[in-house]
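Reagents: none. Just compute today. Lon N-terminal domain-containing protein.
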Amino acid sequence: FADYGCMLEILDMERLPDGRSYVETVGGSRFRVLRRGQRDGYHTADIEYLEDIKDWYQRVGSRSREHINRQHGSMPDKEADIQAPANGPAWCWWLLSVLQLDPAYQTTFLSLTSLKDRLGHLRLVLEYFSQS
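Predicted 3D structure written out:
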């Protein structure tokens, strides 16, 4: 089985006359498999739960955060529908200004008319910064 997974929370269950069931679930806590095994014919695993590392904006010191807020304003709230605004989500443009990219590369972002393309480019930039 997979190296990563998530615990499922059962929301609803309906037993069928033939012994099968309809089970409605939602994903919960994520985990990584440390060791696999088998007991009484069932697969077992030792796991560790995963949690996100605190966001870089939360990790930066309060002086750095104050500087970012003074220079670029506070981080915009997440929109309920990221495709609703005509220019895409405000947080995307805010993040681009905070990252202080080369103006030529910023122009590339301005020219993209697809949110998917902008987020793809943004992903590449963030991957580059995370490796530095």
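The mean pLDDT is 84.
Action item: order primers for follow-up constructs.
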